[in-house]
Each structure stands twice: as structure tokens, then as C-alpha cells.
Design brief:
Elements lengths: L1 H10 L8 H17 L1 H15 L2 E6 L6 H9 L17 E6 L5 E6 L12 H8 L7 E7 L5 H14 L4 H5 L2 E5 L15 E2 L8 H15 L2 E9 L4 H8 L1 E8 L4 E9 H10 L4 E2 L2
Parallel strand pairs: 1-3, 1-4, 4-5, 5-6
Antiparallel strand pairs: 2-3, 7-9, 7-10, 8-9
Helix pairs in contact: 1-2
Organism: Micrurus carvalhoi
InterPro entries: G_HFLX_dom, GTP-bd, GTPase_HflX, P-loop_NTPase
Pfam family, one: MMR_HSR1
């Protein structure tokens, strides 16, 4: 980061009697350089999660084993291009996607893990991944066509434990067995593993459904339909405090069936405010 800022300053012509606008232009340039750096992108992802209040799904694997390709398949983002190089910068990027219920989540593409990390990269590596502990779910992608896939699994779990990831996150990790199209008649040994081919699109529906189930359980949210009176403030309240998915208006009696994703705490508040509401599911 500091190197980037130094380059910005050294290349910007500063005049003796510079106007305030020049100073602002310089500040914008410095900030732009910082945002384009790995650490800048890292904190920008955190800010995006905070202000958008999105659920974050961290995708992990040993380096160059299909994380970005899987995220591209889950989000439909054609601009995402995997980079086939070791530590394609200490970079973390976030990509919005939808679950089957239309709940928006952020898929976070972490840097690849190594079993023997070079000493001079340990501090940067740990700092870049420190916010994994604040994620809502971790998805571990394995290349099951690789001859050392079992060893690579141990590497990823070891790194996560060394990062002091909370136990509830470690226990809820979704393990994805990717690249099954390269293995003849593949059968997973792990009972709860999701079998996929990100390249061909196999298993993506099942993976999204499993992610949604874990997210709803882990965040204390549920999907339900509430019948409301449109003349009251209920609909406005639900748009503010929950995720409204569908509004089915019944014009004959000025009511609506509202399908929402709502947390336990928000539902408790709603029931206190609107005790006469009826719940269809």
C-alpha cells in the first residue's frame, strides 16, 4: 500500500503556488491508488458488507484449484477470470449473487492457501484473511481430480484453525468436491460433501440450496409468508426490517400475502407491533 502511495506522490507534479483544487486532485489520486491495492480492496469489501448488510460466504481452497471459477458459476459474472499464478496478489474480492430464495449474498474470493507459507508472507497473509472470522459461512473447494486432494484439505483446515476461526464456522464448513467431470464415476468419501463441476454447471443447484439452508440457520433467519392489511404500516415496516421477496395483493379486501426472509428478533418485534397479523407459513 505504501509503495503505491509513494509512486502516486512521486509522479504527481506539485507546484509551489498550487491551488486547493490541485491538493484535492492529489488526494483523490492517492485514495484511488490505495483502493486499487490489495489491502484497499480488502477494506472496501468489508465496507460494502457493512453498509449493504449482506451475508458473506467465504470461498477457500489451496491456490489455483477452482475458487474463482466456482464463484463465476454461482454469480453468473462473466467478467470474472481465474488467474493461473501463485498469489495473484494478496487480493480478496467480493461478488454479489442470489440464492434460490432471491436472498442476496456476497461470495468472497480469498487468496489460495499454501502448506508451507514463505516467512516474509505470513503477516500479510494473516492480515488479509483476518475478516474470515466475521463471515457467515465458509465454503471449502477441493479439486478431487488432484492426486493430493486429501493433503490439500488438511492444509486448508490447518490454516483456518491457525487463524483462530470461531468453532461454529469451522463446524459448518461446506465442502465442495469440484472438477468431478475429470474423474470417472466419482463417489465422495465424505457423506455431506457437495459434488460439482463449476465448468459444466453440475451440482450448482444443490450447492446453492445447501448454502441457503446453512445461511438461514446460522443467521437465525427464516422464510415465511405473512398476511397483512395494506391500509396499515406493516408492508413499509417489513421492507425496512426484513427482506421482502414477493407481494401478492388481494384487491377484494385490500390485503396482501407477503413472502419475507426475516430474523427471529425482527419477527418478535413485528408480532409485538402487529399482534393481529396472520401467518400462512
Amino acid at each position: 500500500v505504501y509503495g503505491s502511495i509513494f509512486v502516486c506522490f512521486s509522479q504527481y507534479p506539485i507546484k509551489k503556488h498550487a491551488t486547493p483544487s490541485v491538493g484535492l486532485d492529489l488526494l483523490r489520486l492517492v485514495f484511488s491508488c490505495w483502493l486499487s491495492s490489495p489491502m484497499g480492496k480488502h477494506y472496501l469489501s468489508l465496507l460494502m458488507k457493512y453498509y449493504m448488510k449482506q451475508t458473506s460466504i467465504y470461498i477457500t481452497s489451496v491456490f489455483m484449484l477452482g475458487k474463482t471459477t466456482l464463484i463465476k458459476a454461482l454469480t453468473g459474472d462473466a467478467k470474472l477470470q481465474p488467474r493461473d499464478q501463485l498469489f495473484a496478489t494478496l487480493d480478496i474480492t467480493a461478488h454479489a449473487g442470489y440464492l434460490p430464495s432471491r436472498l442476496t449474498v456476497l461470495y468472497v474470493d480469498t487468496i489460495g492457501f499454501l502448506s508451507q507459507l514463505p516467512h516474509n508472507l505470513v503477516e500479510s497473509f494473516s492480515a488479509t484473511l483476518e475478516d474470515v472470522a466475521f463471515s457467515d459461512l465458509i465454503v471449502h473447494v477441493r479439486d478431487v481430480s488432484h492426486p493430493e486432494t486429501s493433503l490439500q484439505k488438511k492444509t486448508v483446515l490447518s490454516v483456518l484453525k491457525n487463524l483462530n476461526i470461531p468453532n461454529h464456522l469451522l463446524e459448518s464448513i461446506i465442502e465442495v468436491h469440484n472438477k468431478v467431470d475429470l474423474v470417472d464415476r466419482y463417489q465422495p468419501k465424505e457423506q455431506n460433501a457437495i459434488v460439482t463441476s463449476a465448468l459444466l454447471g453440475h451440482g450448482l443447484k444443490e450447492l446453492k440450496e445447501e448454502i441457503e439452508a446453512r445461511v438461514l440457520k446460522g443467521t437465525g433467519k427464516k422464510i415465511m409468508t405473512i398476511k397483512i392489511n395494506l391500509s396499515g404500516p406493516q408492508l413499509s415496516w417489513l421492507y425496512k426490517e426484513a427482506v421482502v421477496q414477493e407481494v401478492d395483493v388481494v384487491p377484494e379486501n385490500n390485503t396482501a400475502k407477503v413472502k419475507v426472509i426475516i430474523s427471529d428478533s425482527a419477527l418478535w418485534k413485528y408480532k409485538r407491533l402487529f399482534p393481529l397479523s396472520s401467518y400462512l407459513s
